[in-house]
Specification:
Rossmann fold, 2 domains, six-stranded mixed sheet, 10 strands, 36% helix, globular
Length: 251
């Protein structure tokens, strides 16, 4: 198998009581790319994401990550291999500071339990790396700010920092721009572009401007099947894609 693709699926299918939510999806995600998964509501994007991160078990098909068959693995095992879904540990702790939130994630990455009971001096070993991660996502000034007091966009950046603390090779971002205003969207877009220099990214995103700006390759789903794949320039000219998804909404 070529090392060119970090994640591949073959005939990925998921049925729910006779309803086929995802049908025969063949996906190839190139290492070091930003790959977007788009489609209208009900297209199967979230189900596909849940299959890839093992929160759902495929009815049939195969998922390969770095050449390893992960189809039957549990979510925690997949995360340990370096395939991490952003906001998976998101549940940022609202009354912990940004630094403390990242430090908790670092404990998990090192295989330790969430040692809230341990002395502060023991946990300080994680401070330098936590500060580096906060700097990477533009949150150095928020290190001592409780998460509950942070603006929404900054809180989403913190969630990305906690994901990066798990030291992934590939990140799956599920609608990273959801609920954001223009200013926050711009900030998170810049952040995603910056971290893509080190991590492969697969994202589900409804904001087509973001998709156009960030994505190297786009897979369009409709009715649980792959309709088309290519870059934004190619797909924006595809009549099938226009009818299924872009259409008047894109205008």
């Amino acid at each position: 198998m070529s090392d060119e693709f970090i994640l591949q699926t073959h005939g990925l299918t998921k049925e729910f009581a006779g309803f086929v939510a995802v049908r025969d999806v063949n996906l190839k995600v190139r290492r070091g790319s930003i790959h977007a998964l788009i489609g209208p509501n009900g297209a199967g994007k979230t189900t596909c994401f849940n299959l890839l991160t093992k929160f759902l078990t495929p009815t049939k098909g195969q998922i390969l990550y770095k050449g390893q068959d992960i189809t039957s693995l549990q979510p925690a095992a997949v995360a340990r291999l370096g395939l991490v879904r952003s906001f998976q540990i998101s549940a940022v702790f609202p009354h912990l500071t940004a630094l403390e939130n990242v430090r908790v994630a670092l404990q998990r990455q090192h295989g330790n339990s969430f040692d809230f009971w341990r002395s502060k001096s023991v946990l300080d070993v994680y401070n330098q790396r936590a500060e580096e991660l906060l700097h990477d996502v533009g949150l150095s000034d928020f290190a001592k700010t409780p998460a509950v007091e942070m603006p929404y966009g900054r809180k989403r950046a913190l969630e990305i920092a906690t994901t990066l603390a798990l030291d992934p090779d590939m990140m799956l971002l599920d609608e990273p721009m959801a609920g954001m205003g223009h200013e926050d969207i711009d900030k998170i877009s810049v952040l995603i572009k910056r971290i893509s220099a080190k991590y492969t990214i697969l994202m589900v995103e409804h904001n087509l401007s973001v998709v156009a700006h960030l994505s190297d390759i786009i897979t369009v789903l409709t009715r649980g099947q792959v309709l088309a794949e290519g870059n934004y320039a190619e797909l924006s000219k595809d009549q099938r894609v226009k009818e299924a998804y872009l259409g008047a909404g894109h205008e």
